[in-house]
């Protein structure tokens, strides 16, 4: 992990796994921010992770920029479908 | 619906129901913005609704402010549990 870019991809593991990953990424580097990225059903988990880290563990963090978007996914059976994405940046105050 | 506040609460109905509700709220009033609100599992649907409205139907809209938060829910069996919330404001360009 470089100093500039701490990215945590959120998937289908238990929420607390990602909470720990975010806290670790802040503590193992002197970075000022970490970005959580997810798509589809994991978007809800991503908001949960951001809120739990901020409210229970690192109260000095602020939810910085939140952006949403759409990605086209190639389907095995041909064609594409759209899936929503989210990025939440947490910044050390 | 007043001119100032167009709020669409997102729940468990099909995504396109909410897409239609958002478009209607823009067309039936001369409001400049609509706010989508949701909590828990509906957060993903909310991002989908915002993206579909913006990309397919009303390309002049911008995703304005996005905020996340936590609400305490009273449980029937006593005690509370936390649930994440999201608010996405769509603004007419």
Could you describe the 3D structure shown?
Two copies of one chain form a homodimer. The model of chain A has no long low-confidence stretch (mean pLDDT 90). In chain A, strand 1 (7-9), helix 1 and strand 2 form a beta-alpha-beta unit. Chain A starts with 6 loop residues before the first strand and ends with a strand. Chain A is of the alpha+beta class and 93 residues long. In chain A, strands 1-2-4-3 form a four-stranded mixed β-sheet, covered by helices on one side. In chain A, helix 1 crosses helix 2. The first copy, chain A, contains two helices and four strands. At the A-B interface, helix 2, strand 3 and strand 4 of A face helix 2, strand 3 and strand 4 of B.
Q: What name does the CATH topology of chain A carry?
A: Translation Initiation Factor IF3
Most extensive interface, chain pair and sizes: A-B, 20 and 20 residues
- List low-pLDDT spans of chain A: none
Strand segment count of chain A: 4
Main β-sheet description of chain A = 4 strands, mixed
Average pLDDT reading of chain A: 90
Q: Helices and strands of chain A, in N-to-C order?
A: EHEHEE
**The level-1 CATH class of chain A:** Alpha Beta
Rg of chain A is 14 Å
How are the strands ordered across the major sheet of chain A? Answer: 1-2-4-3
CATH homologous superfamily (4th level) name of chain A? Alba-like domain
Looking at how many chains there are and whether they match, the oligomeric state comes to homodimer
